[in-house]
Amino acid sequence: MNTHAIARECRHMQQTVLIAEDEPYIVQSLSFLLEKEGLDVSVATDGQQTLDMLKKSPPDILLLDLMMEHLTGFDVLETLRAEPELKNIKVLVLSAKGQENDRRRVMELGADKFITKPYANNDVVSSVLELLDIKTQ
């Protein structure tokens, strides 16, 4: 491991990401890219599993899809922001539901940022690092 990789590992130590997404290809690509940045990544594939994982082991940031089974991303976000021990988790919403009323609702519910699918993977990684206040080289 070179010195830049070691430095990146140290910067991101303890930084955790929960990806709440039901599309395997998206989960695989985002997991790979975020792990490459030295982040610890977990995955939930439906809304109820997302809430369960949030309560069991709160991440530093949640990447949240709006269209999931059992509970929608809207439901997850609303519940998350109502829970005192979870309300400060950063939330980046990634969704194909990019209509203005959906974006407005998500921001009113307390999302930190919204990115419409399809998106450039680099935009997502940059947004995650920005929300976690991680400086890139």
Task: Describe the protein's topology.
Blueprint: H1 3-12, E1 16-20, H2 24-36, E2 40-44, H3 47-56, E3 61-64, H4 73-82, E4 90-95, H5 100-108, E5 113-116, H6 121-131
Helix pairs in contact: 3-4
* CATH homolog superfamily: Response regulator
Beta percentage is: 15-25%
Poorly predicted segments: none
**CATH architecture verdict:** 3-Layer(aba) Sandwich
Under CATH at level 1, the class stands as: Alpha Beta
N/C terminus separation = 16 Å
Rg is: 14 Å
The rough form would be described as globular
Description:
The protein has 137 residues and is of the alpha/beta class. It has helices at residues 3-12, 24-36, 47-56, 73-82, 100-108, 121-131; strands at 16-20, 40-44, 61-64, 90-95, 113-116. A five-stranded parallel sheet has the order 2-1-3-4-5, sandwiched between helices.
Outline of this structure?
It is built from six helices and five strands, in the order H-E-H-E-H-E-H-E-H-E-H. It is an alpha/beta fold and 137 residues long.
Characteristic terms for this protein:
137 residues; alpha/beta; globular
